Amino acid sequence: MRILSAGKIKRFLSLILVFAMTAFMLFGCASSSGRNDSIKLKRELYVGFAQVGHESDWRSAETNSVKEALSKENGITLELVDCDNDIDVQREAILDFIEKGVDYILIAPIVSTGWDDILEKAEDADIPVIVIDRTIDDSENYVTWLGSEFTDEGLAAGEWLKSYANEKGIKEINILEVTGNKGSSAENGRTAGFHKYIEYEGWNIIDSLDGEFTEEGGKRIMDLFCEEYEGQFNVIVSQNDNMAFGIMESLDAHGISYGVGGDVIIISFDACTAGLKKVLDGSINADFQCNPLQGPDCLKLISDLENGIEVQPETTMSETWYAAEDIIPSITYFNSMGEEVTEPIVVVDEKAVEDAY
Ligand code: AHR
């Protein structure tokens, strides 16, 4: 019998680990987006949903997922208010839900603070509040939160860039960052996670501006950056796919090459269908998923609450990290809980694009 060397055993074990993690992550995503055909509510419910807006493909996917799950067929009348990124409109929508005496309030908060008084009103009216997507940081008057661990998305992006630069022999990292809306926990978390690597690795961050999570915002900021910093940057971090589309439009207009084989590495977040298409064609180098398919889990939470089953205070969506090239099979890093994790980097193929949202 052939005895394997310690090195070979280690490589074999890490391959098994990556395989198992891939299966877990893919299965986890599928189960989060699965249908809840078995859920039957005991009574008809009226649910008010104060949604952020319609700024991105991700947002539309989340809205559709919630609409599909909290549907008439499932015994729910859903009143959806698209707040168009306006905090006052979102607050008004919630006050209106309280006045109407809805059975549940669902909030995807535009910003993470300024909620204390409103949520106290919901509590006084005995209306359970479920927070989805972004977090609320200045009130505990809600039953549960369901969404993404944004800091881990930023940490994973940082670890991927570190490994990618090592692999490609890139010595200097000069970053331009286009963030999402300031004050949103999506922006806070991704910035906090990625900036840890800027600090640890001594990377140079040239500038960082708010592109408001929109394609127009991404283009507007990148036009400014191109005028100001042409020839000085080799990495762009775009905190969502729609801004990356605007950024690429601007880079094209300025004759700057990007993506695989280009002068500038592009990192994005969301992994929506159009984003993964850009990874597949090599325009975006890596895309860190933010999973918007939260509807089925929302329905399950409501059903549990209706049945008097205690729900956990937090549910985190499972997410996958994608890249264009097959050179970094996995990343190992300390996540926001301080745990050392090894996660696969999935190379985008047609199937991944088809399965996206
Ligand atoms: O809160 C999630 C973020 O908000 C997504 O990254 C972005 O696309 C959306 O608008």
Please, could you describe this protein's structure?
Helix content is 43%, strand content 20%. It has helices at residues 6-32, 57-69, 87-100, 116-124, 150-168, 185-201, 215-229, 241-253, 273-280, 295-306, 350-355; strands at 45-51, 76-82, 104-107, 129-133, 144-147, 174-179, 204-210, 235-238, 265-270, 286-289, 314-316, 321-323, 330-334, 340-347. The strands form 2 sheets. The chain has an 8-stranded mixed beta sheet with strand order 7-6-8-9-10-12-14-13, sandwiched between helices. Helix 2 links the parallel strand 1 (45-51) and strand 2. Helix 5 (150-168) runs parallel beside helix 6 (185-201) and helix 7 (215-229) crosses helix 8. The longest helix is centred in the N-terminal third of the chain and has 27 residues, at 6-32. The chain starts with 5 loop residues before the first helix and ends with a helix. Bound molecules: alpha-L-arabinofuranose. Alpha-L-arabinofuranose binds at residues 55-56, 58-59, 133-134, 186, 213, 240, 269-270, 290.
Integer count of domains: 2
Distance between the termini: 49 Å
Poorly predicted residue ranges: 1-34
Q: What would you call the shape?
A: elongated
Name the ligand types.
alpha-L-arabinofuranose
**Rounded radius of gyration (Å):** 21 Å
Give the strand content: 15-25%
CATH structural fold name of the largest domain: Rossmann fold
Mean pLDDT: 92
- Tally of separate helices: 11
CATH architectural type of the largest domain: 3-Layer(aba) Sandwich
Strand order of the largest sheet: 7-6-8-9-10-12-14-13
Secondary-structure element order, N to C: HEHEHEHEEHEHEHEHEHEHEEEEH
Number of strands: 14
The structural class is alpha/beta
